[in-house]
Specification:
Length: about 240
């Protein structure tokens, strides 16, 4: 079992954002379907919201999250706004600007980009599946736990379709992951469509996260590049 490196303090940005999200514009039919999904998401009491997000991805937390992510299987809300297509476009060259920007700070940035490139190329040609619901920012801050269950998943503005492996990959980039939580999340993510799909999703999520931090909170960048590089290397075949 590979112990995941810790990134450190909670990400103040809450995850990669920007106009690239496939959920930036939604069709009328998708909005109607989204309303049906919203109706199934429990709205927590404000006091619960303030204290219920897990701070560390432990095995017992992952065990609660896997049924939520697996419930997203086949729940395709709008094929026209697809995270898998977004990932394909980025990995086909749309991420070149971010890669160059991340490599410019020095050896640490170069090492990070090299690890992402190695992860992307090591599995060869990978086809990202579609047909699932994708949250798009499935981080611990957006998960509220009740007694022995997930009470709610919040911040659902980035909902789209694609592969739920993207949300598993997002979990693998959270700041604080223990070895058992890492291993369980990785194994569950690989079972979605294979280790290559999870690896490609992780490469994109990690690069987007690092580039977001570079632009918004650059003083944090040195603290996340090393751990993200090590996690990328841990996913190599």
């Amino acid at each position: 079992m590979v112990s995941p490196p810790e990134i450190g303090t909670a990400d103040p940005a809450g995850g990669p954002r920007g106009g690239a999200s496939p959920s930036s514009r939604l069709s009328h039919s998708c909005l109607a379907r989204r309303q049906r999904i919203r109706a199934r998401v429990p709205v927590p009491h404000p006091a619960v919201r303030a204290r219920s997000s897990p701070r560390r991805l432990r095995a017992e937390v992952t065990e609660r999250l896997i049924p939520v992510l697996e419930h997203q299987r086949g729940l395709d809300i709008d094929p026209q706004h697809c995270w898998s297509q977004y990932a394909r476009d980025r990995l086909a060259g749309g991420w070149d600007h971010a890669r160059k920007a991340m490599a410019s700070p020095g050896p640490q940035g170069l090492g990070f980009v090299a690890s992402i490139d190695a992860l992307f190329t090591s599995f060869g040609q990978v086809e990202l599946p579609t047909g699932d619901l994708v949250h798009g920012d499935f981080r611990l801050d957006n998960i509220l736990l009740g007694s022995n269950r997930v009470a709610a998943v919040i911040d659902i503005e980035a909902l789209g379709s694609g592969t739920r492996a993207f949300d598993y990959a997002t979990l693998l980039t959270v700041d604080d992951v223990d070895p058992a939580g890492w291993e369980l999340t990785r194994l569950a993510g690989e079972q979605v469509a294979g280790p290559g799909v999870l690896a490609h999703c992780f490469a994109l999520v990690a690069l987007d996260l690092a580039d977001f931090v570079r632009q918004r909170v650059p003083e944090r960048l040195p603290f996340i590049l090393g751990p993200l590089r090590d996690r990328a290397e841990a996913l190599l075949p």
